[in-house]
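Internal tracking record. Fields below are filled automatically when a chain is submitted to the structure queue. Please do not edit lines marked as system-generated. If the sequence contains nonstandard residues, flag them in the REMARKS field before resubmitting.
Queue: standard
Priority: normal
Entity type: single polypeptide chain
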Amino acid sequence: DYKGQKLAEQIFQGIILVSAVIGFICGYITEQFGWTVYIVMAGFALSCLLTLPPWPMYRRNPLKWLPVQESGTEEKKPADRKTKKHTKS
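SYSTEM-GENERATED OUTPUT FOLLOWS
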């Protein structure tokens, strides 16, 4: 559903943003760029774990699809079809 997709996107972006800020601050304080990368990668892994599987919190508002219409969907036989003849201009 669309509300679930929006929620998943907000969670994903929030975790990435928070982990990037925390990683930058930790990396700046320790003067190690590796810490920044590790913290951002951990935030990415956490956000993937929370948003990629189809958790029930993302399926609360299912879409209502149109019912299947069985009448009028029969294929026409080749003999029933009219052939168009193209004329050259």
